[in-house]
Amino acid sequence: MTQDEFERTINAFDGTESMRGNIYYRVLDLIKANFVVEAHLLFLSTWNFARFRYVITSFDLPAYEALLQNLSDQLQPLARADFASVNFDQYREMISDSFDRLAAVNGVEFTGAAKVLHLLNPRVFLMWDSAISGWHTPRADYHHLQVVRSGFWTPPNYRFARSGTGYHDFLVYCQSRFSGLVSPSPRKTLAKCIDEFNYCSITKCLADRGGHNNQGEI
What we know:
By secondary structure, the chain is mainly α.
């Protein structure tokens, strides 16, 4: 993977996913303005809509707010870290526990947990979805992806566990795959760029082929 190839794919995301991109940056602006819970609700209701729509009327907002504060404190050792250089193995237990606590929240679950972690630290945590984590079916579709055929994307069996340990393994894998690459935009963290690359190279391509994923999520 060259820097030029990386940048071309990221530029493709900007051209095809402008609405999602606009919401993402509005969410970040809300967080900067200290409207943290409001930002998370907007993000979950758009970027995690497939799961969050079922709990909109019953979502326990005070409990979620308390969880965010607790996780913010728990993840403080990563506050100044960066995806490219952080030693993920050093923080394996912390990351796995944070993910599992979020994934246990109805409406957040295993795809939303990664998104929430990204909002808590956009420089360190990657987002994922069912396709990127390897749960698209039929699984044979993965073999048709250019990113797989080129040998760049070859996770074990194209599938990561839907758990904190699986998410940690995903972070470690992506760190090795995207080593040496940098964000082409001061507006985007490397973690956000990698998410855009994965979305365009995996999620969108699989959606164009048809099939489905086990959570009904893109």
